[in-house]
Structures are given as C-alpha cells and as structure tokens.
Amino acid sequence: MRASLLILSVACSAAQAGAIFLGAYPDGVLVVDEATQRIIDKFPTQAGLPTGMRISYDRKKIYVTSGDRSGVSVIDIASHKVINHFVLNSGNRQLRFSSGVAPDPQDKILYAVVTEVVKQVDRFEIGKPQYAVIDLAQQKIVRTVPIPEEDEDANTNTGDGF
C-alpha cells in the first residue's frame, strides 16, 4: 500500500497522541508517528479508496468514506482496527458523497450530501444532490431530503472557492 497524492488526515485522541491517520491508495489507512514521521501501522479500510475522514465527537473513532464504492468504514483509533464497514452502492445504482460525513454525537448516524448515479445501457443518469441520513447499525441510508433550491449552490464544489 502506498500513500496517494490525496492526503486525508485527522487529529487523534489522547490515547494516540502524536499519531496522524492518512488515507492511502488504493484502499488503506496509514498511521504515522508525528515525532519520527515514520509509518507505525497500515491497514485496509475494507470499503474502498478513502476520500473523506471525520473523527467522532468522543475522539475514539474515525469515519472514512470512499469515493469508488461509496463505502463507510469505522476505525477504532486505539486499536487501529476497522470495527464496522459497508458499501452503499448496489447493482447499477451508485452514490457519490459531495463531501465527507458528519457524525451525530451518539455515533449512531452520519449525515451526508449524496448524489445518486444510475448506470443505464447507453448513459448515466445523475440525480440532484440530497441530504442523507446513514444509520450505522442498519448500514444503509434511512432517509433522504431534497436540498432546497436556494441551498443547491452551497453544496457544489466549483473549485473557485465560492
């Protein structure tokens, strides 16, 4: 596993002070000791190429989202183990995260902005971005809400900083 150009990192809890967690190509996480700048651990996400990372409120878990399979992995910071993982894509239906996810304080659900992409025989049908609620126990999206028209521009990344 080699580190990708896309560098995702999160601050860690007191139990792992001085460790940096980095998303790595093709489907892993590197744990780097901040003082020595050496890799001290590496492990697969089990849900695809990491494109987003978010730490939990209690700072004991990291939520990793993948762009290639629309997966979610939950990593225990202390043990460096994946404690939960699942993929949201199914068949010809794929989901794209517009950005990372936001966990609730109880670590039971994740909030995200997703866009559904359906592969047809001759084209891709791309839906509008929606707010989504992902239940970690059920490992699926349990609710979606259309983004109001006045907020649509706030959820698009135009690359120009606006």
Quick recap:
The chain contains no helices and 15 strands. With 162 residues, the chain is mostly beta strands. The strands form 3 sheets. Strands 10, 11, 12, 13, 14 and 15 form a 6-stranded antiparallel sheet that branches.
Describe the 3D structure.
The protein has 162 residues and is mainly β. It contains no helices and 15 strands. Strands 10, 11, 12, 13, 14 and 15 form a six-stranded antiparallel β-sheet that branches. Strands 1, 2, 3, 4 and 5 form a five-stranded antiparallel β-sheet that branches. Strands 6-7-8-9 form a four-stranded antiparallel β-sheet, with no helix packed on it. 25% of the residues are buried.
Instruction: Summarize the main sheet.
Output: 6 strands, antiparallel
Number of helices: 0
Which whole number gives the mean pLDDT? Answer: 85
Helix content bin: under 10%
Number of strands: 15
* Assembly of the depicted chains: single chain
Give the CA-CA distance, first to last residue.
35 Å
Shape: globular
What letter string, H or E per element, gives the SSE order?
A: EEEEEEEEEEEEEEE
> C-alpha Rg, in Å?
16 Å
- Low-confidence segments, ≥5 residues, pLDDT <50? 1-7, 158-162
Class from helix and strand fractions: mainly beta
Strand fraction equals: over 45%
